[in-house]
Amino acid sequence: MTLKIKVDDPTHWPNGLEKWTPIFLLHLGLYVSICVILLLSIPNSFWDNEFHTVALVLGGLGVWRYSWWFTHAIRASIYGKFIYPRMRREADQIWKSGWRPKHLHFMMTTYKEHVDITQKVVRSIIQSVRNADVPATIWLGSNIRFDEDVVIRLLKLEARDLDLNLRIIRQNVSGKRAAIGLVLRAMSRLPVQDDDLITFMDGDFIIAPGAIEKCMTLFKLRPSLQACTTDEEVICIGPKWISTWLEMRFAQRRLAMQSHSLSNRVLTLTGRMSVFRAKHLLKLEFIRTLEADHLTHWLWGNFRFLSGDDKSTWYYLLSQNAEMLYVPDALGYTVEIIEGSGLDRMVQNFRRWSGNMLRNGLRAIQLGPNRMPFFIWWCLIDQRLSMWTMLVSPMLALLSTFIYGTSFLVAYILFIAVSRLALSMFLFFYARRVTLAYPAILYFNQLINASVKVYCIWRLSKQRWSNRGNQTAGMDDRSALEIFRNTMAFYCTTFSIACLALMTIIYAGLFDLPNLNSLKVL
Fold first, then answer.
1. Distance from C-alpha of 156 to C-alpha of 443, rounded to nearest angstrom
2. For residue 489, what pLDDT is reported?
3. Are residues 402 and 331 in the same domain?
4. Between the N and C ends of the chain, which has fewer C-beta atoms within 10 Å?
5. Does residue 290 sit in the same domain as residue 396?
6. Amino acid 432: pLDDT
7. What Cα–Cα distance (Å) separates residue 511 from each residue in 242, 391, 503?
8. Please, which residues have CB within 8 angstroms of residue 166's CB and are 6 or more apart in sequence?
């Protein structure tokens, strides 16, 4: 199967007001006009006596969530417009002065990847080494000979003039974590220096020109910097709506990453591509954490993590109080091939991402605010709070509609249309292109994500990674113990949702609760 992968030149992307085309502005004007007309023409039930408390609850939650969103937007703007540009100017001067790292290391893992993708990935590495003009080594963690032959042939054809070595580490244990661990163990047996830079990258990540140089100079500029992660853009081979959803996700990622970087930390060192100083990576403790990261859970016992190697590397560096940054102008392209149901792939991705966040979030919170900036610590807490608060408004809408009729549902839909447009306006500044599909996609993204998190929080051992050989963990055991655990997980999920619904009902005053006088037995 031959894939048509088009890598756009980022210098040709529209910037600033160029994204706001006349067609989009026309659509935006129609959207706002329709919302205003509906708000003026449809009776607004929000401030009716029976809905008064419900409206206050929704308004209170909205003020809290939108204030938090606005805080991230302000922090991201400060980092993107003031802090990072100053760092970039200073770092560029270092590059112009002639400084170069002594050696570059590319740790690349691949498993049955499409030949077209592998060739583009390797070519992007070759171009990065050529531009940097320093010795480099590709450490290829592989599982089959086919992937290795593709890389070998391409390097022989296009990299003969470079000081570029290839070291192949064949896995004897399945899984990406094992591949990375074997590569790091191989590195530790060679004279890799503490200040050498190691780029972790997946076999489907294409490095844009200039990305490696932009990362390298930051490590020279900031001796305390231990890791950085880069910007991403998606090349989606699949349904158009999935591509739009992923573009919106990456816009969210840019906003959040820049906000977090203002505190010299990030909340994940993205596995697609991150650059590390070798100081921590070759320690046995780090390697064992990455290879065999695990969690001891009151219900599921002791189980190992399947995916989420990027969260394990992040957690280790966070525990060491290490500085981590997001580099907004160092770009790479993620290739997503969607086969089969797009919705099923979307939910599977949410299960993997949310599971990785939940498995690592609690232990990161337990490190305490003394081991990281307070803002980052609170962001970790907010991740766990937001999955519950997001479900309150749809619960209120359904319960109020059931009790009072459809008039409230209409008002709620208008509330969602207006509020999600307001949030999308922030995302438009971080998106490569703007579309009015964002408000609807954003709402369903938040709703599905919150629902999946509530499901996963009671099933942390159950893991699936469809694009890595469809690996699974904790999915098939039908022993009596596993049946008991699944039953308990179902009970805990049902009980937690019921408690959330009850608290929502009580707080919003949807029902009059019985008092002591009404409970007296005559």
1. 49
2. 94
3. no
4. C
5. no
6. 86
7. 41, 19, 11
8. 137, 138, 140, 151, 152, 155
Pick the closest to residue 227 from 187, 193, 273 (CA basis): 273
CA–CA distance, 55 with 66 (Å, rounded to integer) = 16
Residue 208: closest CA among 309, 331, 92, 76 = 331
Say how far apart CA 264 and CA 374 lie, in whole Å.
Answer: 12
Each residue of 397-413: pLDDT tens digit? 888 788 777 777 887 88
- Please provide the average confidence, as pLDDT, over all residues in the chain: 87
DSSP β-ladder status, 273-277 and 323-337: unpaired
Q: Are 321 and 368 in contact (CB under 8 A)?
A: no
Report the pLDDT value the prediction gives residue 355, as an integer from 0 to 100.
85
Tell me if 277 is assigned to some domain. Answer: yes
Angle, nearest 10°, between helix axes 52-78 and 480-508? 110
Quote the domain boundaries for residue 144: 100-368
Phi-psi region of 181 (alpha: psi -120 to 50; beta: other; left: phi over 0): alpha
Burial class, 116, CB count within 10 angstroms (exposed 0-12 / middle 13-18 / buried 19+): middle
Residue in the block written with tokens 């600033």 = 16
297/406 same-domain check: no
Q: Number of structural domains, the chain?
A: 2
- Residue 473 near residue 174 (C-beta atoms within 8 A): no
The pLDDT of residue 28: 93
Residues 399 and 478 in one domain: yes
Q: Where are the alpha helices (DSSP H) in 305-373?
A: 309-319, 342-366
| Tally of CB atoms within 10 A around 207 | 24
Cα three-residue angle 398-403-408, rounded to 5 degrees: 60
Cβ-contact 183, 141 below 8 angstroms: yes
The pTM (predicted TM-score) of the whole model is: 0.91
Collapse the DSSP code of 10 into the 3-class scheme (helix H, G, I; strand E, B; otherwise coil) and give the result.
helix
Looking at residue 208, what DSSP letter applies?
P
CB 28 within 8 A of CB 141: no
Q: Which residues of the chain have pLDDT under 50?
A: 522
Could you identify the residue written with the tokens 């409230």? 408
Closest CA to 356 of 265, 270, 468, 417: 270
With H, G, I as helix, E, B as strand and everything else as coil, classify residue 434. coil
pLDDT at 522 (0 to 100): 47
**Given this model, what pLDDT does residue 440 score?**
93
The Cα–Cα gap between 283 and 198 comes to 14
